[in-house]
Amino acid sequence: MPPVPEARLDTIRKLLAKAERAGTPDEAEIYTDKAVQMMARHGVDEAVLAATGGDRRADPIGRVRIPVDDPYSGAKARLLGWTAAALRCRWVMHDHRNGRVGAVTLFGHRSDTERAELLYTSLLLQISAQVAGVRPPHPGESVAAFRRSWIFGFASRIHQRLTEAEQAAVAEAEQAAVAEAGDRRGGAAGPSVELVLADRGDRVDRAYAEEFGALPRARRPQVSGSGHRHGAAAADRADLGGPAVTGRAPARITPR
After folding, report:
1. Is the distance from CB of 169 to CB of 241 less than 8 angstroms?
2. Does 250 map to a domain?
3. Tell me, what's the pLDDT at 254?
4. Is residue 244 included in any domain, yes or no?
5. DSSP labels for the chain?
């Protein structure tokens, strides 16, 4: 496999920037699918390249701590964490009190944490532009509760979309690997993409356990507003950028 071009990341950044500046949801959606597909394939290519290139130090496991600001810091933290989980990272919330979160640490391979941070930054700009204009349809409902539940709905649907993009990228890469092996007329096939990703996930899990130990799971967030489905609908129009969940990145809270 040839080196993953840096130009691809530049293109993804430009697509995300166009979505952030889009005048309408439909215009933003034009850039969404392309960015999602490119970032998903980029993640798979980086993983396979690191596994077959013989030098895992090219994509080391590490951490990055990202501050989360109010308002709605608890919901924003889940957006970041669920996005990172979809990109095969583990995540930890810090200063989690009374529904607020001070920061989130992402833990995973550098290529995955970089993609998660890039995508979260874009999504945060998109929700900030939209959530200020949404109000509950029911008289008497708290605007803050509605907007908080809107962000949770947005984050949940983003996670689902990224999962679907990742699965498609893995399937495409597997098919390409089989075709390439066939073109070599009986030459040995490279490692299975799914096995490469599983091995990377196992190494992240082991490193995470050594770094953080056994942290308690975060409680399922209690969301009282009715904005969940409205936020999920907005997420269908959002510009993403990447891959999926392997189911191994539960929300966790650091000890206080």
Report:
1. no
2. no
3. 34
4. no
5. -PPPPHHHHHHHHHHHHHHHT-SSHHHHHHHHHHHHHHHHHHHHHHHHHHHHSS-GGGS-EEEEEEE--SSSHHHHHHHHHHHHHHTT-EEEEES-BTTB--EEEEEEEHHHHHHHHHHHHHHHHHHHHHHTT---SSTT--HHHHHHHHHHHHHHHHHHHHHHHHHHHHHHHHHHHHHHHHHTTSPPP---HHHHHHHHHHHHHHHHHHHH-SPPBPPPP---SS-HHHHHHHHHTS--------S----BB---
Question: Is 225 inside any structural domain?
Answer: yes
Give the burial class of 205: count Cβ atoms within 10 A of its Cβ; 0-12 exposed, 13-18 middle, 19 or more buried: middle
What is the rounded distance in angstroms from the CA atom of residue 210 to the CA atom of residue 75?
28
State the residue range of the domain holding 66: 6-236
Question: How much is the pTM?
Answer: 0.78
Burial class (CB in 10 A: 0-12, 13-18, 19+), 39: buried
- Count CB neighbours of 169 within 10 A: 24
For residue 245, being part of any structural domain is answered with no
User: How many domains is the chain partitioned into structurally?
Assistant: 1
Q: How confident is the model at residue 253 (pLDDT cuts 50, 70, 90)?
A: very low
